[in-house]
Amino acid sequence: MNKGTIITDAISYIEELQKNVDELSDQLLKMEATCAKDEKINLEKNDAENEMKMKPEIEVIHINGTKLWIKIVMQKKRGVITRLMEIMSALGFDLIDTSITTSKGAVLVTFSAEVKFCCYY
User: Fold this and answer.
1) What's the CA gap between 87 and 91, in Å, rounded?
2) Residuewise pLDDT in 10s, the chain (121 residues)
3) Which residue spans adopt a coiled-coil conformation according to this UniProt entry (predicted)?
4) How many Cα atoms are found within 13 Å in the side-chain-facing hemisphere of 82?
5) Is the Cβ–Cβ distance between 99 and 74 less than 8 Å?
6) What are phi and psi of 8, to 5 degrees?
7) N or C: which terminus of the chain carries fewer CB neighbours within 10 A?
């Protein structure tokens, strides 16, 4: 065997290996796409099930005087935060410190509130 033959054989072998790498990469991408699609379907199904089951949780702690700390966990829906803020204002609460967190179809709202006026007669 001369050097030219060895180099030609080496190039052929490397090209064959590269072809195998390309084919395996394509297969891997297809498998990942299938798995990602399946996971997305499962997540959407779980989110839908969790949304249907979630009931609001409310916790109120009296800080002092007219100040309260309020925690609400509820289902994530379009406009729910806006509606909550409108209701709190209509009830006479001045929101001092507000925190909103969303995750997997749920909303956690915590805030300190002070009663501006009493709505009872």
Assistant:
1) 6
2) 687 888 888 888 888 888 888 888 888 888 877 776 666 666 666 555 555 567 888 999 888 888 889 999 988 888 888 888 888 888 888 888 899 998 888 889 999 988 876 555 4
3) 7-34
4) 3
5) no
6) -60, -45
7) C
